[in-house]
Amino acid sequence: MQAAGAPAVLLRVTRNGVMTQYRAGTTALGTNRAVPFDSRFRIGSVTKMFTATVLLQLVAAGRVDLDAPVARYLPGLLPDASTVRMVMQHTSGLPDY
To answer: For every residue of the chain, which 3-state class applies, written as one string?
Structure first.
């Protein structure tokens, strides 16, 4: 991954209620600081279809409501007016970085 330009990789697996975390790499290339487990990062374009698939599976299972505010699931992340559906349709007003 570092050869491709990524300074670190984070992985979290939850199975039967037990969470296991793995990490490799550093906070920045050329440093010795391990990447924190609670790091925030942007998801790459390839993962958008996987994220949408999992979200729609959660909707089908009744665990997520597409018309609910994102704040129900991620408090404080977005304005209350932004719904899950709006985020998925790219109409929530989030800026394009």
So the answer is: CHHHCCCEEEEEEEECCEEEEEEEEECCCCCCCECCCCCCCCCCHHHHHHHHHHHHHHHHCCCCCCCCEHHHCCCCCCCCCCEHHHHHCCCCCCCCC
Of the residues 39, 45, 82, 92, which is catalytic? 45
The yes-or-no answer on residue 45 being catalytic is yes
Is pTM, for the whole model, over 0.85? no
Looking at the DSSP assignment, which residues form a beta bridge with residue 20?
13
In tens, the pLDDT along 14-24 reads 889 999 999 88
